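Hi P.,

Sorry for the delay on this. The queue was packed all week, but I finally got your sequence through. Input first:
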Amino acid sequence: MRKPSSSWIYAPLLVGLLGVGIGCGDADLDSPIVDEEPMPLARAQQGIKGGQFHTEKGPSLGFAINTGRGVSICSGTLIAPNLILTARHCVAEVSSEYVICGESGFGATYRPSNLYISTSPKLFDGDAQFVYAEKVYVPFDGDDMCGYDIALIQLRENMPAERATPAEPRLDIPVARGEVYTAIGYGHSGVGINDSGIRRVLEGSEVKCDGAECVGFTSSVTETEWYGDRGTCQGDSGGGAFDSEGRVLGALSRGAQGCASSVYSGVTGWADWIRVRAVHAAKAGEYDAPEWADSDGDGVHNGIDNCPDVANPEQLDSDEDGVGDACDDDLDGDGVSNEEDNCPFVSNPDQLDTLGKGVGDACDDDGDGIANSVDNCPAVANPDQKDTDGDGFGDACDSDIDEDGVPNGEDNCPYIANPEQDNVCEDESFWGCSATADAPPLTWLFHGLGLMAWLGFGRLKRRRED
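Then the structure:
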């Protein structure tokens, strides 16, 4: 039998199968862990030995899994109305009965319809109510039993608030050595005691190391995991570990022989993956994504949102500095803050302003003192910004000033809309508005005769005066 650097065991309970005899003790990280014989991946539940019966409504729940060979029991944590955090080995087949990091891997994921989930403190109580899974998510970029033992279950329907309250996963703050946590799970309370399926809580456990910090003590804790001082006999597979504020730190993965320690799949190492799934679950459940997943509610999860606290679904980033325009205090990246920058959208560290009007030369192409971004004729100087038809194009560069569909050069009334080119300004046509081609043929004749008569009357009057 091969002897690995350290041996570990997963622990979902197969109802009716033989329990595994184990004893509990504390691991001392002041000295390296001694290699031991590998322990079989027995279908036996290492329950919360010494834990107290837990009836308080909260995020913890248990579920039964129809594996095709029997029924297993695992635990999980509700982190959103329809999303559960658990261990991957609770929802997927395993490749061997030994957990050897780098060699042991996961097999196919069980069908969601094989999972039966309940928030009842006693899973086998006649009053227990079950809900059903819609989807099961596991990491897509690896299947090693060490480092990838995490999963999310999306429910068919949102969990009623009167039955459970979600816990926030502590995604941005890694666990710290010496930090105290609380474990909750549905395992049996000791070797030979057939009382699994009852939720218990155990307080006062302590974090020994996190990820890379564990190098030198054990080679079987990856960068996405952390190491606890109490063994799997005192926790439950997939069950949550909670900090002093009730935030979930991880899902129980495995433990060494002799019940000397616990390894949890930490949520910080999977923060972006959890956030993505949480945003999708919120859309499926038709509720607003939790703040820890999408703080600003713009549909872009915090892990990739370039303005996580300011809604900006378009994610515009003009200077491509990784900070969205909606929250960037230097939009053009020229080292001058937006409030002081005379060209906030165009980089101009020299702030040159020839006209002295508060608009930098770099963003005033036509030199009229109006920034290009707001100039209605950015290529033609028009300091008055006159816009007769209110179409956003200044008269100085508007090819159809009255917006009647007739270009200025062809329009018989360029400042008054007349798409039919009728003589809409006939009363003042003499002063510049021309008659149209559709006007009566004698129109100009009458105008001419009238003028001649007026001039003739004037001459006759002068002669009489003479």
